[in-house]
Structure to design on (871 residues):
């Protein structure tokens, strides 16, 4: 075990004894997400490096401080990628923070989420114990699936030191088609596309335009493109990048940004603000100051609302059901009994 | 419709679950006379208040069919068998179990291969067989909401009319249930491309010990809080009883083709697999068999396999018609360049089925040439396959037991089949020991002791090899969050530290782990 991990363990043990709360920091690119960070900063950014990567195994293992951009660059050199297309939200984003937040990009409904590609996690628990779960192989059912539990847990269950991820080949080509249509027509079309064996890897509707991304072999993409019609968006690649990183105009300005994750509705819901729809109709980004209306919509459509940027941070996530909340608190207690890891980031009061 | 046939034929592959360890003599049989403790009697009385009399089995004959799952070497008669039909009955049973502190083991079809559904002699065996209703199919959203006792294949059959299917296809899919698939995180031949159960189940309703109900996952693509759905999948019935499952459905591909390549060495076959992946192709199925498996299969079903080949690869590609044509050409060329001495593309559906039939019948084929066999389930990094197969050959020679290998080559999941004769004294014990050594080898090369069959009772000792005491303790702490009294499936999946201390002492003492003559890598 390396000295970084040993000193991390010592630091966490000491913090546990003194009840010192720790604020885990990778690249600090997602500090806006969830409850406000507080506690002594625990810097992970120096814990960098790809531990193992063999393209033909489709698995990469990296220290969690590794920059996302570096990891993606290394994969791209072997024409591979992180299939869940994680947003970085800043040049300093690390793979650890990426997995801790569990964000996935436009390809999410078509290729899977961050949690779908995590094969193994090494971490230091709130007890200061160095633990390894999962591994570097595709199939592994030994023990509970703690590695996936860590995805989106925002560091509250353990400080991840290494992650192993399944990677996939980069598509040979990508094409973006644009269609002028209403929100309702876009939802219908998105649903229809998802039900056919087409190489669709992204759908987004905003401001009267539906964009559909096709990725794969030249033959599959070209034949799908000609059968679907629409106009070719020659700036497609940069559009999807801007969408993923929230650099489209829609994401500018100061109005709070809400993330409404629901089962795709048949018709556009009555939203209290400007919106952008992606993920085949399963994700609505909404600007505005009326979270109560959005919570009601989330409930009506079997989903949930997250405060993404702006507004009051202490209520970032929709409350859990009672039995689920008991289990969430129990898991926190089981991994971090002293409650020192990223307190209040995910679960208020713990 | 060709694609529908494909879904059905192909999804019968990987037969590890179908023919199972037979005639094992080490069975632990509980005496037929049935004397329950006072407390269990009272508990049974209360159960009769909630269940109709035919739904509570107490007689020895009625309990007998439940004494083992697919791992027939481990047998135990449950104190009683409950066959509830309603959700409320399940809740009530779990409430009573908590109140009386009675252990409970949930069971689907009992096709599991690791003893995960082996009953508890002082507990209830909860069969979910009567929860066999498909509640709702939503072709628009491409989801199906089903009860846990619905068979895996029944889902694909029910949605085929919409051009959809449920992707994970464990070999036992004609019999195994979705509830059991969730418990084991079942895989199949198509996992490299289409994922495991955890990638294809989007929501579940779970009753916890004591009767609380949680809903995990959902029809939205994410949910707040920790990923309890991921935690539940593959938890081997240790955390809760799944009473409803929502699965994601996929559109059936337009076309699928399979090719058969023969190699003179295992190494070149393994290298060829790496070449295919390096080229950016993810086959829908990629299976490898070694010579003993080829010979047995060919003798049995005449699939057209070359009996003098050291290894064969079966590679299936799917997608649009044009795409499959192009890919099959590219892969054929690649395999030839990688040293395949022959590459044959199935010319029609009949030949495609014939190519698969050898792989599909590999286990029964082994069953023909050996009185008994034992199926191992290690996963390894693919690059280690030649080393591991060589290691298995050495271990096999030392033990005097033959081993045939079939391999999900795409995702590194190896199924060595140890051939033995249970009627010879001591041979099953030697088989188990050899199996343990093979799993040790898998762990040493960075792999795992179980890719898709689960730990259950069978591999509980090997958990001590794969995990440290602290890691096992963390598993126990997680379990206690869901089931503080440890009443769900006790003694399975995660060993106690005391057991590991004992096992590790024995393990080294017996010289099995040491094996100084075997190079460790």
């Amino acid at each position: 075990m390396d000295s970084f991990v040993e000193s991390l363990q010592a630091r966490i043990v000491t913090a546990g004894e003194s009840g010192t709360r720790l604020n885990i920091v990778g690249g600090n690119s997602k500090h806006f997400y969830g409850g406000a960070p507080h506690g002594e900063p625990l810097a992970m950014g120096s814990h960098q490096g790809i531990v193992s990567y063999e393209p033909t195994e489709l698995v990469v293992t990296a220290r969690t401080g590794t920059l996302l951009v570096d990891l993606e660059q290394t994969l791209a050199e072997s024409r591979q990628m992180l299939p869940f297309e994680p947003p970085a939200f800043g040049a300093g984003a690390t793979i650890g923070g990426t997995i801790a937040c569990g964000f996935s990009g436009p390809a999410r409904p078509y290729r899977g989420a961050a949690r779908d590609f995590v094969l193994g996690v090494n971490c230091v628990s709130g007890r200061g114990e160095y633990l390894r779960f999962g591994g570097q192989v595709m199939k592994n059912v030994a023990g509970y699936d703690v590695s996936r539990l860590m995805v989106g847990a925002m560091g509250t269950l353990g400080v991840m030191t290494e992650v192993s991820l399944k990677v996939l080949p980069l598509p040979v080509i990508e094409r973006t088609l644009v269609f002028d249509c209403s929100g309702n027509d876009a939802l219908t079309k998105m649903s229809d596309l998802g039900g056919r064996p087409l190489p669709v890897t992204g759908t987004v509707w905003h401001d009267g335009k539906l964009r559909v991304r096709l990725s794969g072999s030249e033959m599959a993409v070209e034949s799908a493109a000609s059968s679907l019609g629409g106009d070719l968006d020659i700036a497609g690649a940069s559009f999807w990048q801007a969408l993923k990183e929230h650099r489209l105009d829609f994401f500018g300005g100061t109005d709070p940004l809400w993330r409404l994750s629901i089962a795709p509705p048949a018709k556009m819901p009555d939203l209290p603000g400007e919106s952008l729809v992606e993920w085949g109709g399963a994700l609505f980004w909404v600007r505005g100051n009326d979270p109560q209306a959005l919570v009601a919509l989330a409930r009506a459509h079997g989903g949930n609302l997250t405060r993404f940027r702006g507004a009051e941070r202490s209520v970032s996530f929709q409350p859990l059901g009672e039995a689920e909340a008991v289990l969430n608190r129990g898991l926190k207690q089981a991994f971090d009994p002293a409650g020192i890891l990223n307190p209040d980031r995910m679960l208020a009061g713990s | 419709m060709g694609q529908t046939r494909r879904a059905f034929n192909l999804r019968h592959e990987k037969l590890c679950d179908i023919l199972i360890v037979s005639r094992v003599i080490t069975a632990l049989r509980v005496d037929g006379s049935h004397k329950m403790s006072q407390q269990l009697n009272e508990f049974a009385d209360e159960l009769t208040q909630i269940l109709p009399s035919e739904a509570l089995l107490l007689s020895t004959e009625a309990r007998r069919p439940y004494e083992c799952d697919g791992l027939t070497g481990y047998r135990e008669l449950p104190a009683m068998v409950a066959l509830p039909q309603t959700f409320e009955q399940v809740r009530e049973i779990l409430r009573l179990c908590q109140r009386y502190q009675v252990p409970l083991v949930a069971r689907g079809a009992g096709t599991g291969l690791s003893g995960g559904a082996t009953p508890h002699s002082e507990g209830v065996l909860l069969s979910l067989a009567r929860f066999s209703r498909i509640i709702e199919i939503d072709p628009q959203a491409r989801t199906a909401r089903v009860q846990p006792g619905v068979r895996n294949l029944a889902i694909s059959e029910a949605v085929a009319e919409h051009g959809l299917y449920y992707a994970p296809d464990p070999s036992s899919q004609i019999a195994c249930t979705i509830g059991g698939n969730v418990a084991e995180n079942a895989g199949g031949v198509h996992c490299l491309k289409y994922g495991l159960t955890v990638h294809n189940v989007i929501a579940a309703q779970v009753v916890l010990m004591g009767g609380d109900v949680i809903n995990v996952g959902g029809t939205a693509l994410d949910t707040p809080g920790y990923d309890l759905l991921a935690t539940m999948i593959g938890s081997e019935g240790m955390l809760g009883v799944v009473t409803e499952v929502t699965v994601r459905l996929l559109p059936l591909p337009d076309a699928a083709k399979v090719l058969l390549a023969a190699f003179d060495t295992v190494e070149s076959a393994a290298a060829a697999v790496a070449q295919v992946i390096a080229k950016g192709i993810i086959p829908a199925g990629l299976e490898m068999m070694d010579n003993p498996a080829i010979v047995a299969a060919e003798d049995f079903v005449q699939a057209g396999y070359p009996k003098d080949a050291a290894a064969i690869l079966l590679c299936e590609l799917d997608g649009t018609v044009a795409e499959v044509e192009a890919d099959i050409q590219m892969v054929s060329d690649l395999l030839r360049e990688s040293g395949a001495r022959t590459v044959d593309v199935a010319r029609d559906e009949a030949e495609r089925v014939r190519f698969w039939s050898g792989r599909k019948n590999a286990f029964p084929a082994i069953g023909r040439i050996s009185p008994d066999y034992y199926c191992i389930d290690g996963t390894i990094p693919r690059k280690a396959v030649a080393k591991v197969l060589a290691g298995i050959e050495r271990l096999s020679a030392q033990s005097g037991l033959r081993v045939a290998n079939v391999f999900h080559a795409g995702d590194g999941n190896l199924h060595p089949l140890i051939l033995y004769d249970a009627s010879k004294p001591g041979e099953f014990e030697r088989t188990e020991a050899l199996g343990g050594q093979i799993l040790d080898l898998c762990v040493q090369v960075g792999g795992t002791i179980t890719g898709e069959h689960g730990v259950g009772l069978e591999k509980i000792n090997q958990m001590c090899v794969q995990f440290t005491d602290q890691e096992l303790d963390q598993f126990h702490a997680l379990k206690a969050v869901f089931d503080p009294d440890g009443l769900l499936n006790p003694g399975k999946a995660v060993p106690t530290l005391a057991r590991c201390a004992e096992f590790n002492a024995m393990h080294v003492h017996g010289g099995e782990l040491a094996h100084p003559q075997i190079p460790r890598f």
